[in-house]
Amino acid sequence: xxxxxxxLANFIMLFNMAGYAFISVLxxxxxxxxxxxxxxxxQICFNFFLACSAFLDMYLAKGDVIYPILFGVLAxxxxxxxxxxxxxxxxxxxxxxxxxxxxxxxxxxxxTRISTERALRQLMIFLIVLVFSMAIPYMFxxxxxxxxxxxxxxxxxxxxxxxxxxxxxxxxxxxxxxxVFKLTFQPSDAVKILFIFFLAAYLWTDIxxxxxxxxxxxxxxxxxxxxxxxxxxxxxxxxxxxxxxxxMATGNYIYLVGxxxxxxxxxxxxxxxxxxxxVRFNIWLDPWADIDxxxxxxxxxxxxxxxxxxxGTGLFRGSPTVIPFCETDFVxxxxxxxxxxxxxxxxxxxxxxxxxxxxxxxxxxHNMFYRLIVYGISISLIFQTFxxxxxxxxxxxxxxxTLPLVSYGGTSLLVSSVMYFIVQAIYIKLRDESKNNLLxxxxxxxxxxKRKDKSNSKTTKNTN
Amino acid sequence: MMEKEKIxxxxxxxxxxxxxxxxKVVKSDRHDNKFYNFFMPVEYPTRxxxxxxxxxxxxxxxxxxxxYISVSYAVNKTSYIDNxxxxxxxxxxxxxxxxxxxxxEGKTLAYxxxxxxxxxxxxxxxxxxxxxxxxxxxxxxTGIEKEANYYLVNSGDNxxxxxxxxxxxxxxxxxxxxxxNGNTVWSTLRLDLQQAAxxxxxxxxxxxxxxxxxxxxxxxxxxxxxxxxxxxEEDWIDLTANKSNSALLNRCLQGLYPPGSTFKIFTAxxxxxxxxxxxxxxFNCNGSYSYESSKIxxxxxxxxxxxxxxxxxxKSCNSSFANIGMSLNKNKFSAGLESLLxxxxxxxxxxxxxxxxxxxxxxxxxxQMQTSIGQGDxxxxxxxxxxxxxxxxxxxxxxxxxxxxxxxxxxxxxxxxYKASEYKTIITEDEAAFLKDLMVEVVESGTASALKNExxxxxxxxGSAEYNDFGDSHAWFTCFAPAEDPxxxxxxxxxxxxxxxxxxxxxAKDILDVYFGVK
Lengths: 464, 519
Description:
heterodimer; A: mainly alpha; 3 domains; 3-stranded antiparallel beta sheet; globular; B: alpha+beta; Penicillin-binding protein 2a (Domain 2); Beta-lactamase; 6-stranded mixed beta sheet; 18% strand
């Protein structure tokens, strides 16, 4: 019987994942709140059964008691995430919470398969992160000066990445980590949030050309610092987030088109200026030429994805661990090898539904500051996903960023979790305040052409 | 009617009146489309277009990834597995037993056995007989073992079969329990023909290739000297050290030999092509032919007397063909030979064994004369000669040769089947008929008349290719049968075998006899 389960486990897992992805997409095509709440319950069921089948599979394959223990801790963590959040914040967005839980579950399955010690560590970090994250909606409801700290965000953010550039540790050719009290951080990940807040706080009131120029200059400082630290992936994310946020703030297509043209020009300049950019690009063109050395990683990643086929080899039956950094930058390849390409695609669909939900929330918000934050976060998360998956599959050159909520690593997990909870916080705030409709009135005034009048906004705030 | 239209207009009008400056949306703008609707469920100012643009941009990017992954999987799945850096094969072999390779009659040519200690061993019941065709899989891979590697290590066993560790009856070994069965490869090779060719060659070096002219199926492929694929790992050092033997070389595909008189097929075709009337051709052979300072002699200096074109070919008269060769235009001759697959890559049978490229040199008059009788700086592979023979037999059309018929899983489900496909038409139907007549005459009254028999008609051409200055020669014979409606083409080369008619032709006859059930 257990043998049969071992053979079937992959299909059970795929069934749960595909079912989850399917109802998540369905969620957007129904208006009935009843159907939506049924979908949310079903999502939790699929999530639970996915975790059950995966950890049972691993337990049966290895017979180690650590797997049931990990499952237990994971169940507690997810219960905390799903129930406690909803208990404290009745108006939390259940759909995003469920997605967060599902994506993290997949990450835990992969990391557990790769290394149980790391899985345990990741879970512990998640529990701490969760406690911190759950305070965010409360902070947002009590503190209302988020849109006034414009230059603080920029200064702190820049300072952080400059410190990394100057004293950071060189890992794998890039200066991206810094060690404080024996804990290693990757500040560029966290600075992403500060950067989004800076842009939102700077651009939300009114749009003048000089504002665009100054924000572009500040963003360029961020991006150039990151390029100098050889953190190309983060640099690219910052650039794209900046372009999309300006596009959203102005509503003008020219910034989107012009911004992307600027990225392409900057990439060509970077290609000619920096040898490590050239190396990355050449590996992308032909990873087989230097398979022993520089092309090894991407070649192994491609082997992994293709050797699993559509349904995957089954847990412990592939060898994703031969890819260097399989648990961080190449976690998608590990998922695709052992759980199948279809499973990987379903995972991406779930990530995309998160993106769509965030966009939906952004469209509901009439406060431009909060809208820009939600929008910026959604773009940052989805673009990071695109970079890491595209890089691992050789769709685009490799940049070495993590897959939010899936990859192993404290900073990445913290930042993605905080991002999700900031969106939650804004969503909760929106639902709280839309009741008395004050916020609506306030912004209606702004959009009627009084946005420049700051005194006006202050008075409205007071009534609020 | 009018009123109805009016009502419609009043309903429609607000839709077109969106205040673009403030991006404000009025209630009536709400679209009927659900997809648009969920982005703007309330009447607030919204950046609907911007939101949808972002969605579309990333939607397209991810769609690109999905398509890229799927296409890359479909394209690369069979080739990635052969990369030495890929551990997929090792992983699969922990669960699946490498599948069997069968001859077209269903005889097992290779299978995997599991020993008591749990180690897997590849077994080749016919030893060295299929060394080059089936290949080997230990150490590295070649032949069918490499060509079908992906399918051999994958299994079509269903979940239940895997779960209950079912193994097929033909492998009653208890140690195979626990493994799923790899797919079975049905080759096009025929054991009886392969045996005839293998034993016919005996201890001589050489190569035999037998193909089905209407499909391109390779029925037999023997190259000697050979090796035992089962012990390749132990023998490897000896095999690679012995350069003069080059046992690992597949002589059918990669052995380059002077074509000898088999090249007269090419010369005859070119003579016809350049518009000469072959019916009016006549030559008086006194045993040799001289052009300027160089001289060509007939074999053993035999004087053939007065010959027409057909007899020149049938008797394989060197003097006459040197005469014919010298009447050809150099440029046209070059172009003609290139159209007959010289200087180009031949269709591949195995991905890792690229057929050698046949070359010629007619830059000087002497070289042109030598080449026209198949000597000089001309070299061909047996495979090339066989392809041309196939073309003559099949009205000018070459079918692409292939060696794997189909791949089946253990439940007899066909995983993949290989279809006959046309490779190229190199000569016209008339030219094919003309050359066929010439080759029939070779057996009727010419150098291969010993092969004439009552059971089947055949058309062929002998060749004795001198490879040194002492007159020693490789023996060639290429033929197809039955002449009226050709089925198979056989090409034989025996290194240092002397004349084609004495060594190569009888071997071809042995194979044909087996094919037609005479023996």
